[in-house]
Amino acid sequence: MKLMIRKTEKGLSAYAPKKDLEEPIVETEKEDLWGGWVKLKNGWVLLLPEMPADTRLPVTVEAKKMGD
């Protein structure tokens, strides 16, 4: 699914346009974000692609939802 990740004053946020859903990122597998999973406040766990650590936000990526 397409996922836009951006930085807000409260931390990182993820927006899924097809679902019209925006949720804060509450947990990350890797400190630099890319190539690991992130957990959203609503409980979704999404696998992010490998990208350079210095990737500028906001950015739209193709993420995979893990589990159901």
UniProtKB/TrEMBL annotation:
<dbReference type="Pfam" id="PF06988">
    <property type="entry name" value="NifT"/>
</dbReference>
<dbReference type="InterPro" id="IPR009727">
    <property type="entry name" value="NifT"/>
</dbReference>
<dbReference type="GO" id="GO:0009399">
    <property type="term" value="P:nitrogen fixation"/>
</dbReference>
<dbReference type="InterPro" id="IPR024044">
    <property type="entry name" value="NifT/FixU_barrel-like_dom_sf"/>
</dbReference>
<protein>
    <submittedName>
        <fullName>Putative nitrogen fixation protein NifT</fullName>
    </submittedName>
</protein>
